[in-house]
Description:
Layout: E1 5-11, H1 14-35, H2 43-48, H3 59-74, E2 82-83, E3 86-87, H4 90-106, E4 111-118, E5 121-126, E6 135-139, E7 147-152, E8 158-165, E9 174-175, E10 180-181, E11 186-193, H5 196-209, H6 211-220, E12 225-230, E13 235-237
Antiparallel strand pairs: 1-4, 2-3, 4-5, 5-8, 6-7, 8-11, 9-10, 11-12, 12-13
Helix pairs in contact: 1-4, 4-5, 5-6
Amino acid sequence: xxxxxxxDVRGGEPDAVRAALQEAVAGLHRVDEVFSAxxxxxxxxxxxxxxxxxxxxxxxxAEVLGLGAEAERVxxxxxxxxxxxxxxxxxxxxxxxxxxxxxxxAAVPGVSGVSMNGGGDVQLLGTPDSQRPxxxxxxxxxxxxxxxAVISAAGTQELAVATSGTAERGAHIVxxxxxxxxxxxxxxxxxxxxxxxxxxxxxxxxFAMGSREGLRWLExxxxxxxxxxxxxxxxxxTGGLASHLG
Length: 246
C-alpha cells in the first residue's frame, strides 16, 4: 500500500501474540495483492478492466466496495471510489486494513491494548496499561517536527486518528467534482472517531470540501471530532474535540 505499518501490542502470551502478528502482516500483504491499483494482475485492476466480476473476487472486495459506497452516500459524493474514470477504492482500503489487523490482535487472549499505525493513521484499542491511556501526536503541517495537538484515548476502549492533507504527499487528494487535485484553503484535516475505516474516509472527504463546508459536515456526524488547519495557519475544531485532547 506504499506505506509503513507498525504495531504496539500490550499483554498476551508472547507466542500467541507473535503468531497473531505474523497473521496480521500476512493479511496486510494479501490486501495489497488484491487491491493494488499499481499491479496489473491485482484483482482490483482486473475488476476495473472487466476481466472479473465482484463475485469472482476475494470476499474482501465486496466488503470494501460496500463500505466505499456507504462513504460516498454519507459524504454526498465528496468521498469517491473512482479516479480518472476507473474504479479505485484505495482511499478506504488502508484504514480498513489497519483497523482489521488491530482488531485481530486485540482478540488474542490476554492482550490489554493495541496501537496500530498505518502510514500515520492510528487505530487504538484497549489501553497500554492500567495507569494511562493511549496518546497520539498530530503533526503540525506548517511546522515540521512540531505537534498541532495530542489526542488521548482516555475513557474509551477504541479510538482512531486519521489525517488527510498536503504536508507529506503533496496535492494527492482529488476533488470528485472535477477529477483534479482538490484546491481548498486547508493543509490538513485530522479526524477522531471510534473506527479507522471511517476516520480515514471522513478526513479525505472533509479536506476536499474545504474548511467551512468540511467543518459543518463533520459536526453533523455522530461520534466524530476533528481538527482542521488552513494554509493561513487558522485552526478550526469541532465542538467536542476538547474532550479528546491531552
